[in-house]
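Hi team,

Filling in the usual template for the complex we talked about on Friday. All components are listed, including any nucleic acid strands or ligand strings, so the model treats them as one assembly.

SUBMITTER: L.P.
PURPOSE: interface mapping
COMPONENTS: three
RESIDUES: 1224
SEQUENCES:
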Amino acid sequence: MTTTPTAPAATPAARARALLRSPILLSILGALLLGSVMLLGAGGNPIEAYAAMVDGAFGSTQWRNTLIVAVPVVGMALAVAVPLRAGVVNLGGEGQIVLGGITAAVVAATVDLPMPLSLVAALSAGALAGGLLGTIPAVLENRLGVPLLVSSLLLSYPVVALASYVVRFPLRDPGTGLPQSRVFEEAYRMPVLFGIGLSAVVLAVVIALVVQVDSRTPFGYEVRLTGHNRRFTEYAGVDVPRMVTRLMFTGGGIAGLIGAMVVTSVPYRYIDGALVVPGYTWTGLLAALLARANPLGAVAAGVFFAALQVGGFGMERETEVPRELSSILQATVIVILAATVAATARRARTRKDTAVSERPSSPEGGAVRTRTGTTSAGEVDS
Amino acid sequence: MTPRKAEPSAESGGDPAGEPRVELAGIVKRFGDVVANDAADLRLATGEIHALVGENGAGKSTLMSVLYGLIAPDEGEIRVAGKPVRFRSPVEAVEAGMGMVHQAFRLFPSMTVAENVVYRAETRGTAGLLDRRAAVRAVQDLSERYGLRVDPRARIRNLSVGVLQRVEILKALHRDAQVLILDEPTAVLTPQETRLLFDVLRGLRDSGRTVVIVTHKLGEVLELSDNVTVLRDGRTVARLVTAETTGAEIARHMTGRAVDLDGHYVPGTPAAAVLTVEGLTVGPPTGRPVVDDVSLTVRAGEIVGIAGVAGNGQLELLEAIAGLRPSRSGSVRVGGTGLHGFSAGRRREAGIAYIPEDRAATGSAVAASVADNLAVGFHRRSPLRRGWRLDRSAVRDHARRIIEHFDIKVSTPAVAAGTLSGGNLQKLVVGREMAHDAPVLLVDQPTRGVDIGAIENIHGRLRAYRDAGHAVLLASAELSELMALADRVLVMFGGRVVADLDRADATEENVGLAMAGIPASTGAPGTGS
Amino acid sequence: MNVLTELVDLSLIPSILRALTPVLLAALGGAICAKAGVFNVGLEGFMLVGAFAAVAGSWFTGSAWVGVLAAVLAGAGMAALLAIASVKYGGDEIIVGIALNLLAVGLTAFLLRTVFGRQGTFTEPTLQGLPTIAGQTPLTYLAWLLVPVLAVFLRRHVWGFRLQGVGEAPEAARSLGVDTVKYRYGAVLASGVLCGLAGAQLSLGNVVLFSQNMTAGRGWVAVVAVLLAQAAPFGVLLAALLFATAEALGFRLQGVGLPSQLASATPYVLTLIALIVASVRARRVLGRAPGEVPSEDRPPVENPAASTHVSRE
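RESULT (copied from the run log):
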C-alpha cells in the first residue's frame, strides 16, 4: 500500500495473493453485493445490470466517454489525494474547480491572445485561482486554528454562488435564455490530438509530476511521514504548516486546472452548474479515499469510478435502472473500506500490544491523559 | 514510626496462618511466543500490605491484570475466600472486592472529584437524575475515615498528581474494594506525598483491607510491606516476610545477580559551555508558566541531569529548547548562536538533537518503515539526497549503518517501526539522534519501559556520546539513572530549577528534598515524618 | 433606511424559526455525538435521507406523521451504518461520515426514480405536509423543547453524565465497566433520529416536496454549530439561530432586488466568519481551537484542529 522507498520487491504471485486479501477488493465486492440487493429490490436483474454497466463503460464506442469523464474525476481525485497524503482533508474541491473554470472563462472572454498563449493563460489563470482558494483554509488553520476540513467546505458555497452570478450577468450569452457564457473564440478551445483531448495529456503530465515528487523527493517523503504521524515530523524539524499550505495550493491548483480544462473543451463555454452537477468533486474525493491518498492509486481509483459513472448511463439505457446506482456503489465501497482497514489495523495492533509484556517503569507525564480515540500502546484493555 | 491503629475489628490483623483472602495459583499467560507469566503464584491475606516486586518485564503487571479481570489467564486458578472464580471483566473483579489504582490515572479531567469517584456507582435521585450532593457526602465520608484529604468539588484538571492518586484510591473504596492494588504508586510522588500515601495505606490495612503494591523500589518494600512476593521471568521465585528479610536478599531474588547501576558512574571532563539557557519561561499567554525563568549551562563533555517528579516542567523545558513549544521569554544559545525565533528545523541545523520522552507518539512514525524512521533529518542532505531526489539505496545504507552500530534487532530496514520491541524502538530513536553528531543532545526519560539489557546499552551510549565532547542534557524521573550518568544534577519543581548540585552534593537525600520543593539551603531535618 | 425597514420587521421571525428548526435538530444530534466523543460529519446525509423518507411515508399513507416516523427510522438507519463502521470497527469517522453523505445523495436520487419515477423533484398537491400551530410545525416546538431537555439530560441525568465521561476519557469509563461502544451507538443513533426529524421538517414543514440534495449544506452548518458551541445545547441554539437569521435575511435580500446568489451564499459566509471569530477567540483565551477537547496534558505540537485531520492508517 505505502510506497516506502525501501519496500522489498514482491513477486507477482505474492502481490496477487495480497490483493485478494486486500480490504480494497473486499470492499468493492461488498458494494457490488449490496448493489445487487438494491437492484433486486428495484426489480432489476443484477447480472444484466452489471453487464450493461461494464459494456456502457468499456464497450467499443463507450471507452472514449469514460476517458472524457475520467479526466476531471482523476484530476479531482488528485486534488484531494495530494493534501490527504499528509492527512489533510480538502473538502473545498467544488469551489476550487468552479473558480478555476470561471476564471478561465473570464480570461477567454476578455483577453485577446493568439493560440498557444491563450490556452496557457486560461489554464494557468484557472490553476492559480484554484490554488489560491485552496490556500485560504490552510492559512486560516495555520494562523488562526480554524478547522480546515470545515472551512474548505464552507468556502465553496460563496465561490459557487459568485461564479453563478458572473455567468448569469456579466458573462451571459444574450443569444440564449440559458445561464451560460458565449462560445469562446477559436484560440480558447482545447485541441484534440490523436483522438484524445489535450486535457488528457496535460493531466498525464500532472500525474507524472505528482508521482515523482511523492515517491522520489525529500518533500514527498516528508509528506508521507506526516500522514503517518504529524507530531513526529514536526519533532523532526519539518515545517508542517508550510507543507499544508503548499499541498493545499497544489490540490486547489489541480482542481482549478481541471475546471479550466473542462470549460475550454466541448462545448467551449461556461455553463452554470456544469462543473458541479456531474459530481466530479465528490467522485474524485471518494476515489482518493479508496486509494488512501496514494497518487497512482488515486488515478486508478478515479478511472474505476469514472467507468462506474459512465457505465451507469449505459446501464440506465439498457435496463432502466437509474444511473445513481453508481454513486451508491462508490460511497458504499468507501464505508466498507474504512471499516475493514480499521478492523485489520486494530487486530494487528492488539496482537502487538499483548505481545509486549514490558510496561513503562514510571508513569507518563504528570497529569491525566485524555487522548480520545486512540488508546495508548502497551496497555491491555478489555 | 508506628502506624495509626484503627479500632480493632473482627477481620483486622494479619493472619498469615489462616486461609488466604485471595489466591492466584499456577497462573500462566502467553502472548504469542512471549510467556509473561509462567506458573506465578500469589497469596494475599486479610489485613496485610503485600509487595509484589520484580524487574521490568518480570510479569508483575500481567499478573495484576489477571487478578483485576483485564486478562484471562491461559492456565491457573484464582480463588477468593477459597472458592475458585473467573473474572471475565474488571467489573466482575470489582464486584468480588478488587480495586486497582493504575499507573496512568484514569480520570475525567473536566469533572469534579466527587463525580469521578461515583462514576458508574452513582446515587440516583428522581427520574434517574444524578444526586451530586450524595456524591460529595460519600467522598467526604471516605476521605475523613481514611485520611485521604481532598476537596470533593475540585475539578480534576486543577489537581496535582498526589491528589489524583487519592481520587483513584477513593474510587476503589467507594466500590468497597477489599483488595486494593496499586501499580508503582510512588513513581509520581514527592517524598512528602509518598509518606502521606503510606500512612493512608497502613490505615487501610488496619481496617482489614488487603493492599498490594507493585513496585521495584526496595526501600518502599522494606518500609511499608508486611510480606513480599518476588517475580522473575514470569514465575514466583520467592515469598518472604518483610521483617525477616533484607533488601539485598530481595534484590538477589529479583535479578538473580547483584545490580548496582550507580557503580557505573564515570566522571566526564567538561570543557567550554555549549548550551546556554537564560531566563527561559514557557506557558500560556496568561496564567502560570510551566517553565519559570530557567537558566542553565551544559558544557561539552558533560551530562547535566534534570531531576524532578514528572510534570514539573522538564518536558516543556526540553521541548522549548528544541523549538517544539513557543517560549514567552528568555534565550537559548548553542555555541555562539542565539536561537531566538528559530523553528525546530533550524534549531536542529544549529546543533540540537533530541531524544523525546514518548518514542512511539513523538520519536517515530510506527507505521512507516525502520529505514524511513532513521532517515528523518538526514533526508535533505547528501548522501541521502542526490540532486532533487531522495536516493533510496542511500536511505537503506544509512539505515543499515545505524542498525548495526546501535545493535537494533530487526530483520530488514523495510519492516514497520511499530513491529520493534520497546527497547529496540528506543535504540532506533537514540541511534538516529546520536547519528546527527549534534553538539547538544537533549534526552528525556531514555530508558522508560525498556529491559535491563537495553538500559545498560543506552547508558553506555550516552556516556560515550558525552566523552566524544558533546553536551548532554538528560531529564529522568529515575534517580538511579541520574546517579549512573549525570556529572551535575539540576532539580526542577513547579517549573523552576530549585537546586543545582555538583556530583558530590547530589545525594539521594538532597535531590529528594529539592524534588519536593524544599531548598537545600533551609537545611531540612532528614527524612523523618 | 427604507431598505432596512423592508429587511427587518416582525414578520421575519416566523421565517427565521422555520429556517432554524432543521439546523437546530441536526446540530443537537451532532452535539450528543460530540459529547460521546464521536465527530459526526454525516448529519447532512442523515437529514437528506430523512427528508426523502418523510415524503415517501406521507405519500404512501396519506399521513404526515407516518412520514415523520419513516424519516426517524431512515435517519436512524443511516446512523446505524456510521455506528457499525466507525464505533464498532473503528473506521475513521470523518471518512465514513463524508462517504455516507455522498451515499445519501445517490440513494435518494436512486429511490426518487425507482419509487416515484421522477427526476430532480417530487411534489404533488395531495402530498400531506405537517400541520402547523400558530404558523409553525410541531417539530419546531419540539426542537425548542429539546434544547433544555438535552441540557438537563447531559448535565443532570446519570446516562448523560456517563455519556460525557465516555466522550472525555473512554479508557477511564471503560475501566469502570461502562460499555463505551453502547453509549456511542446510542449517541449516533440519537443523532440519526434527530436528523430524521430535521429532514421531515425540511420536506414536510418548510416546503412540501422532495428535491434532490435539498439539504444543501445545512448538515454541515449544523457541524459548525456543534464546533462553535463546543456541543453545549444552548450554545448550539445560538449558533443555529445565527445561521437561520442569515438564511431568512438572505431571502429578504432577494426580495429587495439583490441577486439570489448573494442570498444563497450569505448563511455560509456568516457561518464561516463565526467559525473564524470563535477560533481566534478560543486561541487567544484558552490556547485551543473550538473543535478541540479541552485537556490539561495536551501534546505540545499537536495541530489545534487535530480533530479534523485523518490518519491514513
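MY TAKE: Chain C touches chain B through 26 residues (CB under 8 Å). Confidence is low (pLDDT under 50) at residues 287-307 of chain C.

Thanks, L.
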